[in-house]
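Cast an eye over my tokenised protein here and flag anything odd:

===
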Amino acid sequence: MEPRVRSRAPSPVKSLTVACVLAAGLSALPTGCAGGPGAGSPVPGPPPVLLDQQGFDAALRRAAGDFRWPADHRPDLDRLSRNSAPRGTDAAPAGSERIILEIANSCAWYLSWAAAHDRADAAAAAAALQVLEEVLPTYGPQDPDGRRFAEEAAAGARAGDGSLARQFTEANCDGAITWAGSGTAAAADGPGGAP
């Protein structure tokens, strides 16, 4: 999971779904070059499992239970699914729901740490910091840049500097995720809601 910094644009959750669908389509293409070994041969192994809207929604809800969420930031799964599930006849590769949840979980913990830090709640900030240091760097293990960013954001948070965490939430969370029970999107948390 590589954090992105960008201005307000279409939801990163929707953009991620499009990227996942594209990746699934590309993985189904045959390998090899004309005349080379494997030319025209299908990719070895089973075909990717693709999820329609209902399958994605069910997988997202099942996988959400595998994540630990801070009490003050739990995603509204109805809206998260609605914003990220494939539409119509589109499909998303199985596993893309976990990527969406890793992003949402990262948002939740960065925002929870920031809120605790802002209100000087040392116990809650320490609990969130532990997740920032031990869990978030494990998301997207195939992405060394994402791991490095998470480690640097956690180190900054430990030092009381939430600028990298804020950068992540502004690029990946604001306006894209609604928190259950709050009726508000991450962007509505305001200056005190992001590190």
